[in-house]
Write a structure and sequence with these properties.
Blueprint (H helix, E strand, L loop, with lengths): L1 H6 L3 H19 L21 H10 L12 H7 L28 H4 L7 H9 L4 H16 L7 E4 L6 E3 L31 H15 L7 H8 L35 H13 L3 H13 L7 H18 L2 H10 L4 H14 L2 H20 L3 E7 L8 H8 L7 E8 L9 H16 L4 E7 L17 E7 L15 H12 L3 E7 L8 H22 L5 H20 L12 H11 L1 E4 L3 H14 L5 E6 L2 E6 L2 E6 L1 E4 L1
Parallel strand pairs: 3-4, 3-6, 4-5, 6-7
Antiparallel strand pairs: 1-2, 7-11, 8-12, 9-10, 10-11
Length: about 650
């Protein structure tokens, strides 16, 4: 009822104002104001001012309506008038009505209250209050009661930049304002409206200089994390699991209970074989057993089993493509990805060495040719972390005002803005070049790589052209999907560019077989090495390790295991297979300098404490691996 009265004009006040206006008009005309005319009235039931009176009147049966007020209006109103209406007001008292901001049609029950514009109105005005002092006292009490519902501060406008507070008075509007009971207990910042500030851009500048230019700290991150992490107490030799007893022979010392853990790799292979022959009952049983001993926060083997179990479950349910699409469509900010990248390069040299290998080769050729413009065409630019060190080198070159052009190519994103990721990468690179006073031009291309035309690259005469791809050629489809392989189409496009140097860094793998069991076995062995590397160089509690394994390893495993056809985009080949493709496409391989290989090997030995990283050379290929298993390969090529 109170909520309705807030939005509706008070009929009681409007009747008095109308009567006062009519009386003043009659007096101006010199005529006598007529007596009250009978209007359509309502029954006493509708005029009860309390629930108790309403129930009493309703039970007595007085519910009839009449068009004449002479039968009951005077007597009933005199006897049943509310207590606040029984005190007469002074003769000089004027009751002013507040104008209503809006009007709306009223129900019948409310329209009936407007019937007392006659005898009821006269009687009300003459007998409301006894004197003006009583009215002033009640008005003061009303103000005190109303002030309890008002906010304690009038801070409405805040200057975010200068942090000064401006105060403006409250405005009375026709809208309701519902104050929450717990509003006064909330912090003051809850009610402040501030302009949105993207912490992403503010953090990136410092992170770029700290991570991408000067590299990770010289201390071993593993040692730092192990010192800060709590040490697990050693297992007690006398303890044994509940429900099991340990017996000892005479004279034999008690030994610690060793928990039997099944071979998770063998269970995963058996589960994959059951899935391949559609033996779902056996596969579900093996999968439950794997789930009992796997976790995304366990050791390397348990984490490996966790992500492979997720992929097998998605393949059994037939939702592999949907799950992978959902994982790929998740947008991670550049700041979060840079932090994960920092954790990765601080313990694993693969990506960092691949970047140094490519950037060093470009710098050596630029020194020889001294071009006015360097045009880098990057297939799979992603966040563009590779080029900040090169921009820094260009900025500090003496006697050179070289212009940098970058054509960033990547696959389109899902949604209404397929090129948003590539464009944001260009914006970050442009801001960094502006900071270092390097002339910069960026060309964003977001489409399937095999559909790119030569004119889309906007080549110019006289510029130094370098084509680069950092471990992304594995995402191109091959002959098993399309007759004209997209891999060969992209290589032919690069051959038409006639670049000064072509630097492909590839993921050398063998899990591109069309048969599921063969592919599953190869991808299991490949990621076993990667998870073992992370388990050796990082602690289990490292949050960035969880992010990196989930965003990269987990997503790739999901695609290889649970997707088929064109939806399976993780299709690595060995470096020998890529060499055959490039020779057929019209490229000639350049020799790798032995001095460069020696410098990179010394860099790995100096900055990474683990001795299990492998750096080697096979012909004109620079190879990287872990514990004897080849993982990445890089080389130089030019057009024939």
């Amino acid at each position: 009822m109170e909520e309705d009265m807030d939005d509706k004009p008070c009929m009681f006040h409007d009747a008095l104002s109308l009567q006062a206006a009519e009386r003043s008009l009659y007096e101006a005309l010199g005529e006598k104001y007529p007596d009250s005319t009978p209007l359509a009235t309502t029954s006493p039931v509708q005029l009860a001012h309390s629930p108790d009176e309403l129930s009493d009147i309703t039970s007595s049966g007085h519910t009839s309506r009449t068009n004449s007020s002479s039968d009951w209006s005077s007597d009933w109103l005199e006897n049943n008038r509310p207590s606040w209406m029984q005190t007469p007001t002074s003769n000089n008292f004027v009751f002013q009505s507040s104008p209503s901001t809006r009007s709306s049609p009223k129900p019948v029950g409310e329209r009936s209250n407007a019937a007392f514009r006659s005898s009821f109105s006269d009687d009300l005005v003459s007998n409301m209050f006894k004197d003006s002092s009583n009215w002033a006292l009640q008005f003061k009490r009303g103000v005190e009661e109303a002030s309890k519902f008002l906010p304690k501060t009038t801070q409405l406008v805040i200057d975010v930049e200068e942090n000064h507070h401006h105060y403006v008075p409250y405005r009375i509007t026709g809208k309701k304002c519902h104050w929450r009971e717990d509003e006064e207990h909330l912090p003051e910042e809850r009610s402040k409206k501030q302009s949105a500030v993207y912490a992403d851009e503010t953090e990136l500048s410092d992170l770029f200089d700290k991570i991408l230019l000067f590299g990770p700290p010289k201390e071993n991150p593993k040692c730092i994390l192990q010192e800060s992490s709590p040490k697990e107490p050693p297992p007690k030799a006398s303890s044994s699991p509940k429900g099991e007893t340990t017996t000892y022979s005479r004279g034999q010392k008690p030994t610690a209970y060793v928990k039997e853990i099944p071979d998770l790799r063998t269970l995963l292979l058996s589960c994959a074989q059951a899935v391949s022959v559609n033996d779902l009952r056996r596969a579900e049983g093996l999968l439950r057993l794997v789930r009992q001993h796997s976790s995304s926060f366990g050791d390397g083997t348990e984490r490996l089993a966790h992500y492979f179990a997720n992929s097998l479950e998605a393949r059994m349910a037939g939702t592999g493509t949907q799950v992978y699409t959902a994982l790929s469509s998740k947008k991670t900010s550049a700041a979060d990805m840079l932090k994960a990248y920092q954790t990765y390069v601080s313990v694993c040299p693969f990506k960092k060495i691949g970047i140094v290998f490519a950037n060093h080769s470009i710098q050596q050729l630029v020194k020889k040719t001294m071009p006015d413009t360097i045009h880098i065409i990057d297939f799979g630019i992603s966040y563009g972390f590779q080029w900040h060190s090169l921009i820094h080198r260009i900025a500090w070159r003496r006697g050179s005002s070289c212009k940098l052009r970058i054509t960033g190519i990547d696959l389109p994103q899902r949604g209404f803005r397929p090129a948003s990721g590539v464009i944001q990468t260009g914006n970050r690179l442009a801001k960094y070049c502006e900071k270092l006073n390097v002339p910069f031009e960026y060309n964003a291309i977001a489409q399937k790589w095999e559909t790119i035309k030569l004119e889309d690259l906007k080549l110019r005469e006289g510029e130094f052209v370098a084509v680069n791809s950092l471990f992304r050629f594995r995402n191109l489809l091959d002959e098993t999907v399309a007759v004209d392989s997209p891999r060969d189409v992209v290589l032919r496009l690069i051959q038409k560019i006639k670049p000064n140097i072509f630097i492909p860094s590839i993921l050398s793998g063998s899990y591109n077989a069309p048969f599921f069991v063969t592919r599953f076995r190869e991808v299991l062995y490949h990621f076993s090495s990667l998870f073992d590397m992370c388990d050796t160089t990082l602690t289990r509690e490292d949050p960035m390790r969880v992010v990196f394994e989930k965003e990269f390893y987990g997503r790739e495993i999901m695609n290889v295991v649970a997707c088929e056809g064109t939806a399976r985009v993780e299709r690595p080949e060995s470096y020998k297979q890529w060499q055959s493709r490039m020779v057929r496409a019209g490229f000639r391989q350049l020799p790798v300098e032995k001095e460069l290989v020696q410098k990179l090997r010394l860099m790995v030995d100096r900055e990474y404490k683990s001795k299990d990283f492998d750096v080697d050379q096979d012909g004109n290929w620079f190879l990287q691996g872990w514990k004897g298993r080849l993982v990445y390969a890089s080389s130089f090529w030019v057009s024939v």
